[in-house]
Write a structure and sequence with these properties.
The protein has 6 helices and 4 strands. By secondary structure, it is mainly α. The longest helix has 17 residues.
Length: 161
């Protein structure tokens, strides 16, 4: 399973945007400066995010982007899938032609891993990541996030905001 920079940057940028919810539109140039992500790359990502109704844009002076849905209803999987990031650990891209136009002997293992990864990313909501970052910035104990079994556990992992 490989998550490329496209998926990582999309989640980071949307989290940055969510951290500023209620403060008006956020300019991509500001996200670019805070997160050290190329502005042109962010423009490409946000085009896909807008097309998938995760963000909305406001034109003109003071314009920028806003979340199109409440952070509680946006999962990490929604963001990754919106930017066309595959969540696939199989060597065949799920086409079942890994070996001589048939499934390899470990295909089902990797397909099962895909399902667990997707379930985990779908269970983690943007609002949880926002709460985690706000706790960290306030110097409080880090908010719990889900582990792969759906249970909650403390973590020190965080995205820079």
């Amino acid at each position: 399973m490989r998550l490329t920079t496209r998926g990582r940057f999309a989640v980071t940028a949307v989290l940055d945007l969510a951290m500023r919810a209620g403060q008006g539109p956020v300019a991509l140039a500001d996200i670019s400066a805070r997160q050290k992500i190329s502005l042109s790359y962010l423009e490409q990502l946000f085009g896909k995010l807008r097309k998938n109704n995760l963000v909305s844009s406001v034109r003109g002076p003071g314009g920028g982007y806003l979340l199109a849905r409440p952070a509680e209803s946006v999962s990490v999987a929604d963001i990754i899938l919106a930017v066309d990031e595959p969540i696939d650990a199989t060597s065949c891209g799920g086409k079942e032609n890994c070996r001589d136009d048939g499934k390899c002997i470990t295909h089902d293992l990797w397909q099962g891993l895909n399902e667990h990864i997707f379930d985990y990313l779908r269970a983690v909501k943007l609002s949880e990541l926002v709460a985690q970052q706000r706790s960290r910035l306030a110097g409080q104990p880090v908010v719990e996030v889900r582990d792969l079994r759906g249970a909650r556990k403390p973590t020190d992992a965080a995205l820079p905001v």
